[in-house]
Design goal:
The complex is a heterodimer of chains A (592) and B (365). With 592 residues, chain A is mainly α. Chain A has 26 helices and no strands. Helix content of chain A is 74%, strand content 0%. Chain B has helices at residues 43-51, 99-109, 114-127, 143-156, 173-190, 201-207, 225-230, 235-240, and strands at residues 4-12, 18-27, 32-36, 58-63, 66-70, 75-76, 84-87, 161-165, 193-198, 210-215, 218-223, 245-251, 259-264, 270-274, 284-288, 294-295, 304-314, 319-325, 328-334, 345-349, 356-359. Chain B has a six-stranded mixed β-sheet with strand order 7-8-9-3-10-11, sandwiched between helices. In chain B, strands 2-1-4-5-6 form a five-stranded antiparallel β-sheet, covered by helices on one side. The chains are: A mainly alpha (592), B alpha+beta (365). The A-B interface holds A 9, 25, 414-415, 482, 484-485, 487-495, 498, 502-503, 506-507, 585-587, 589-591 and B 14, 51-53, 72, 74, 78-80, 82-86, 88-90, 92, 94-98, 105-106, 109-110, 135-137, 139-140, 153, 157, 163.
């Protein structure tokens, strides 16, 4: 539309040369640095997201993976086959149970942190990073060490102290409630963060106005505070539901041994059958995706309508409730949560790793380093460590490189391209890892891009699934860089690239480094995707650990888990050492 | 240093919003011009077009003889090629560089020799009186100090044109007065062509050689502060640059020697108004500034009217009366020793020189 007048004018004024000139002009305007850098990134992201997603949808409507006909039979089976119906029910039960545990733990902790005079409240805010310490894989292993009916440490001790007969019980973690409990510990920080955030950013004059109107404390809590934070509670609970419905690792380790299958573990089971039933696996995955999309949408609606939770810039702390002696009870509760979420699991892993085999008694004289020696003597361990290191460092670097450019597009450009990329890049967040895992397996086993059989598919898988994490980190720090900081560089003579180099990159570096570290740590322990797309010889640490578990070599698996924790701790320690300098470079410098 | 010419400049955003409709004006070499208008009038967009931070969709912009924008010939010089200095609303002082490095940036980009950079940065810092802050980081500075860093950075490269985008709107009142004075002083010392965007009429009046009043993407009036205040082009300009009694009138006699008798449209009051040149077109309004309504107790004359005091408001340095003159409401400001109480009569003088006939501007205001 816009071209027409330009060419007319050109043709009218200078008959020959300017139609070429106008074309060159349009090309010239398109070929600037911004487009040359951003177009490839947009294409890569679009490719990575589209390819597996499209295959996921296609295969779920096919009678067999390589038979290109349309059928609804797999969806039909989901709702008629009694076994699959039971598994659907399990999934629902598990997600509901997890949500329940999350609220049970999260609401009191959030309230104590945000609105009471509980001692050490500030330090305990670090609770938010607990799931990082014990990710699903290690947490599940640890809780089986603690609560397995026959060999669980807690069960052994309980039997000894209570003088119970037999060599099993009294607690069994291998069931819906056990899995829900462990998942609840893992996902409760979402509730804590959301609700504590809403509670502490609330304008306390709203409550004071109610007091002034003559309401008592109970009435204020019921009529003012609760309604104001209800959107935060509901949306975080929904988030816990969505995440736990698609979670693979914990039900795989704690549910499968007792025959309790959910959708995610069924997807894995169907994909690893010989011959695999990929259409059924993808149909199950589609259901999980649809549920995730619907509930995420609902959650967003809740929070956007609940945006009357006002964040004022005024610097006063919200009204704090004095608990008196009860504040120590509150502290005990929070510490107990920390004990369950991090301390006890790690201790149990260390304990397990020092035994040569699990026995139904407890004695210090059984301790040995045999597991570690065996691990270090096995070449597969070294290979897996090497693979994990390459993938996590390489994957995190590539992901952040893409994310920085994508963030630049989504934050700074206001055109449809930017909006499209913004929505598009977030698609993987609605796809549970296990579903993406099976989709990747299908997509990269065939042209146009055969990656299966090497580390490449693991790399692409990690990047696809966790690109949104990197994008968020980069975008949120770029948003804080006022546009005028960049514009002033241009005005004072810098071209686009100089501006990026001298102004933008130095300013967003702390956020980008933080995103990079997060990704390194996540990739180091990723199982749900890896377990689908790895091939023999390309194991990563998480896969090796899973296989040791499946072989029943639980103590060896515990030793490997301890090594993974150590490896992560070393990386984090090193980065903190450098990262602290990176972050405080310009904030702290020159103050002395 | 050079003059700035804008010829039929327009800017329509991709969404179809027409921020600047048609702006034609010339800023003379070394002149200080203020763009004044309410938010959304297009003044900042026009400035950003001059800076090269926006692509105008129509028209031409020249710095002296150099064409920096011509939408028909597809000329667009990017901001880094225009040799300008700019002070942003948010100051846009880079937090990861010291004050010295911030100010040195334009020179480092131009690859000026090191010793000269040192000398010129010190000079720029001296001019804005912050030599002692050279090694500090911006996060350690107050808003006013950051503002001075921004100004130093803008002048250090001795640019052809200096642009200010509402630079004082984030400062408190006292600091604002101080900076107004400092910026005018600097501009006069350096003689750089300057364009200054503001929505504050007193700022524009105090600082600028000429004021460009903008409204809805167009120029409403260009003139010296005195012209704009005393002879506004229409009621929009009249009420934007100060308080105004605007009385709807119609012509009640012939125009003679710049004077014309008028009659209030819905009332008995007859006045003599002054007109520059021909009668304005359209519906007419008589402008009388509140300070030009003069109390005239015991005086006589054609231009003395008897008013009734409706309300008296004491304001410290002055007193404000609301008056009723034959059914017409008039606001008068005068020395605070006036003691006429509500309900009492008070003769006032409405000098024809101060009754300015304007055309009523259409639309919103």
């Amino acid at each position: 539309m816009r071209r027409a007048p330009a060419t007319e004018k050109a043709a009218g004024g200078y008959p020959l040369s300017l139609s070429w000139g106008a074309l060159r002009d349009r090309l010239g305007r398109w070929f600037n640095w911004t487009n040359l850098i951003s177009m490839p990134v947009v294409l890569i992201v679009a490719f990575m997201v589209t390819l597996p997603t499209v295959w996921l949808v296609i295969i779920s409507f096919r009678p067999a993976t390589n038979v290109a006909r349309f059928t609804l039979r797999w969806y039909e089976r989901l709702f008629t086959d009694p076994v699959l119906l039971q598994r659907g029910l399990n999934t629902l039960l598990l997600a509901t149970g997890t949500m329940f545990f999350c609220l049970l733990i999260g609401l009191p902790v959030a309230w104590c942190l945000a609105r009471t005079d509980m001692p050490f409240a500030r330090q305990l805010n670090a609770l938010a990073i607990l799931p990082f310490v014990t990710p699903p894989l290690l947490g599940a292993l640890a809780w089986s060490n603690l609560l397995a009916p026959r060999t669980g440490l807690v069960n052994i001790l309980l039997r000894q102290w209570l003088g119970l007969e037999g060599n099993s019980g009294p607690i069994n973690v291998y069931g819906v409630w056990g899995v829900a409990f462990v998942m609840g510990l893992y996902y409760s920080p979402y509730v804590i963060n959301f609700v504590a955030g809403a509670l502490s950013s609330m304008d306390s004059t709203m409550e004071e106005a109610a007091f002034a109107a003559g309401a008592n404390g109970w009435t204020v809590a019921r009529k003012i505070t609760l309604p104001l934070v209800l959107p935060a509670i509901a949306s975080s609970a929904l988030l816990a539901f969505v995440f736990s419905a698609g979670q693979f690792t914990i039900p795989a380790l704690l549910g499968v041994p007792g025959g309790m299958y959910v959708y995610s573990t069924t997807i894995h089971q169907q994909a690893k059958l010989w011959p695999p039933n990929l259409p059924l696996a993808t149909a199950l995955g589609m259901v999980l995706v649809v549920v995730a999309v619907a509930l995420t949408w609902l959650g967003n609606r809740l929070t956007s309508r609940g945006s009357y939770v006002t964040v004022t810039g005024r610097g006063f702390r919200p009204r704090v409730i004095r608990l008196g002696p009860w504040r120590w009870v509150a502290l005990a509760f929070c510490l107990f949560y920390m004990l369950l979420a991090a301390v006890l699991p790690i201790l149990s892993l260390v304990y397990g790793s020092l035994l040569s085999f699990w026995r139904p008694t407890f004695s210090l004289s059984d301790f040995t380093l045999a597991n570690y020696v065996a691990l270090f003597q096995a070449p597969i361990t070294w290979n897996a460590m090497k693979n994990s290191l390459i993938l996590s460092v390489g994957g995190a670097t590539l992901t952040m490189a893409l994310a920085v450019v994508a963030a630049f597009i989504t934050v700074r450009r206001k055109d449809p391209l930017a909006q499209g990329l913004g929505y598009f890049a977030m698609v993987p967040t609605a796809v549970p890892s296990v579903v993406l895992g099976v989709a990747l397996l299908i997509a990269y086993l065939r042209p146009p891009l055969v990656l299966y059989g090497g580390l490449g598919i693991l790399l692409v898988g990690y990047m696809t699934h966790f690109f949104p994490v990197g994008l968020k980190a980069a975008a949120s720090s770029l948003v804080q860089v006022h546009r005028e900081l960049e514009e002033s560089a241009r005005v004072f003579g810098a071209n686009f690239l100089t501006m990026l180099r001298r102004i933008t990159v130095p300013l967003i570096r702390p956020g980008v480094v933080a995103g990079w570290v997060t990704l390194v740590v996540i990739f180091m322990r990723e199982l749900a995707i890896s377990v689908f797309v790895y091939s023999p010889g390309n194991e990563v640490l998480a896969v090796q650990l899973y296989e040791l578990w499946n072989d029943g070599r639980v103590t060896r698996a515990s030793a490997l888990a301890v090594l993974v924790i150590l490896q992560t701790a070393i990386i984090l320690g090193l980065l903190r050492f450098f990262g602290a300098r990176v972050g405080s470079e310009w904030k702290g410098a020159g103050q002395g | 240093m050079s003059a700035v010419h804008l010829v039929h400049v327009g800017k329509t955003y991709d969404g179809g919003v027409e921020a600047v409709k048609d702006v034609t004006l010339t800023v003379k070499e070394g002149e200080f011009v203020a763009f004044l208008g309410p938010s959304g009038c297009g003044k900042t967009t026009t400035l950003r077009c001059i800076a090269g931070l926006e692509h105008p969709t129509r028209g031409e912009i020249r710095f002296g003889d150099t064409v920096v924008v011509n939408s028909e010939k597809k000329v667009f010089v990017p901001p880094e090629g225009r040799d300008i200095g700019m002070v942003f609303q948010s100051y846009a002082v880079w937090p990861h560089m010291t004050v010295f490095e911030n100010v040195a940036f334009p020179l480092r980009i131009k690859k000026v020799p090191k010793a000269e950079i040192e000398r010129r940065v010190r000079e720029a810092l001296r001019l804005t009186k912050i030599e002692n802050l050279a090694d500090r980081y911006p996060t350690q500075l107050s808003g006013g100090q950051q503002q001075r860093v921004a100004v130093s950075r803008a002048i250090v490269g001795n640019p052809r044109v200096l642009l200010f985008d509402e630079p004082l709107s984030n400062l408190d009142a006292k600091l604002r007065d101080e900076m107004r004075f400092e910026i005018s002083r600097l501009q006069r010392e350096l003689g750089i062509t300057t364009i200054y965007v503001t929505h504050d009429q007193s700022e524009a009046m105090v600082m600028a050689d000429r004021v460009v009043v903008m409204r809805e993407g167009r120029v409403a009036q260009i003139g010296t502060p005195e012209e704009i205040y005393a002879h506004p082009a229409d009621t929009f300009v009249a009420s934007f640059v100060g308080d105004a009694n605007l009385i709807p009138v119609r012509v009640a006699g012939p125009l003679e020697g710049g004077r014309v008798p008028v009659q209030v449209r819905d009332g008995q009051l007859r006045l003599t108004a002054s007109v520059r040149g021909d009668l304005p077109a359209g519906d007419l309004v008589c402008l009388i500034r509140p300070e030009n309504v003069l109390p005239a107790p015991g005086q006589d004359g054609e231009d003395v009217y008897t008013a009734t005091v409706v309300r008296r408001t004491y304001m410290g340095s002055q007193v404000e009366y609301e008056l009723d003159v034959l059914g017409v409401k008039l606001v008068m400001r005068t020395h605070p020793n006036g003691r006429t109480a509500p309900g009492q009569r008070l003769p006032v003088r409405l000098n024809p020189e101060h009754c300015v006939l304007l055309s009523e501007s259409g639309g919103g205001d």
